[in-house]
Amino acid sequence: MENDEAVKKLRGWFSGRLPGEWFEGQPEIVLDREEIAVVGRLQAPVLGDDVSEVERAAAVEGGVQRFREETRERRIEIALEAEHRFRRKISWGVAVGDETVMFTTLSVPVMTRLRQSERRVLDTLVAAGVARSRSDALAWCVRLVGKNTDTWLTDLRDALQHVDRVRASGPDLNP
Asked: Which tens digits make up the pLDDT trace of 94-105?
């Protein structure tokens, strides 16, 4: 099944399975080989215009924490059902305004071969105290690239979905 169709199926299943009062609209589904992330939009706290940014941020944090605690048992129950059904781990998060908070996510080991110049970059980050290890330094680099090239990565993912659709519409090579 192509990724776009898989996400639609997952979004539909979670929309039907999740209590209607949890989120505004359908949850966002982010899918990779190991994990399904379910991110629902919470209503922003209603505060007056004279509220400071510090108070607004604290209200958002409190609302996110309240949601997390109040829904924990049901989220675990739904995640266990989904993990059995879809054969991937489930992680949860919420979005409020421009902020997204993930409650749980997988940390998956990835092996790679690096040349000396690439290892020196990681070793510099470790020596400077930016990261505790080469592994942490590599994760930091990946986050930095993802943050600074978000538009490019989005365009690339869109192009890959187009390739999947074209490939699916082609002839079946396995009669």
From this structure: 999 888 999 988
